[in-house]
Design brief:
Blueprint: E1 2-5, E2 8-12, H1 16-24, E3 33-37, E4 43-49, E5 52-60, E6 66-70, E7 82-87, E8 90-95, H2 102-135
Antiparallel strand pairs: 1-2, 1-3, 3-4, 4-5, 5-6, 7-8
Helix pairs in contact: 1-2
Length: 138
Amino acid sequence: MLLEGQWFQPKEIDSFDSIKEKLSSMTVKNRSYLYVTDQIGNYIQVGGYKDSFTVEKRVYTTPTSYTHCKAGYCGSGYSSDLSAIIIAGNSVKIKQNHILSKSTVEQLFLDFFQDIKILQLLHCFCQLFIVFFLRNNI
């Protein structure tokens, strides 16, 4: 997977620690967004700093279609009224229930990272399975 951000060069990653480190160093202006992309275009991105973030992701369901969603809190304790967070020094209006804590963002990135790793392992397994059957004329 590729980790990219406003303040660092894109880099291939194979552990969640790299993501967590970058999330911890986000600031109000020059370090306020980053994203992780896999080989087929699935991604998760975050903007914000401290304890006010917004997250969205895209996951392909077929080679030509995908789901795109913004993360948000559900339930009676969260308002859908508009509020704002700062990304790249600019105020960005979003629903209050889409303003996420750092710990929630870390969990969303971890879930994405693990889901993609599982898909990659399944893909490798399927390729090995096909090779096995072709070699054994099954």
